[in-house]
Amino acid sequence: MSDATLDPEDNKIIVLARSARARNGAAEGAAVRDETGRTYVATNVALPSLTLSALQVAVAMAVSSGAESLEAAALVTEGDGPTPADAQAVRDLGGRTPLVAGPDGTLRQS
What we know:
Layout: H1 8-24, E1 28-34, E2 39-43, E3 45-46, E4 51-52, H2 54-64, E5 70-77, H3 84-92, E6 99-101, E7 107-109
Parallel strand pairs: 5-6
Antiparallel strand pairs: 1-2, 1-5, 3-4, 6-7
């Protein structure tokens, strides 16, 4: 799927994830969109006592804000893509496989 055929709302969450990653100088940026269209943007957390992926943080933000389901999720990373745990967190709220893009925003997996 090219950027030209990507749904504008899906492209938006890739842009948001990319921006968060760049702003924080983080390894990963993620964004999710809930059933009402609200978006939640996060980067990975790497503390001595707490390690969370960007998708885990974004999903947790959505849940703690009252989201009941996810319409879409996106991950921006230099890595391979979401871990099985990341993908499961998205599926726990009914979301589909996360979109994965490189740091330049190029879609690698949909």
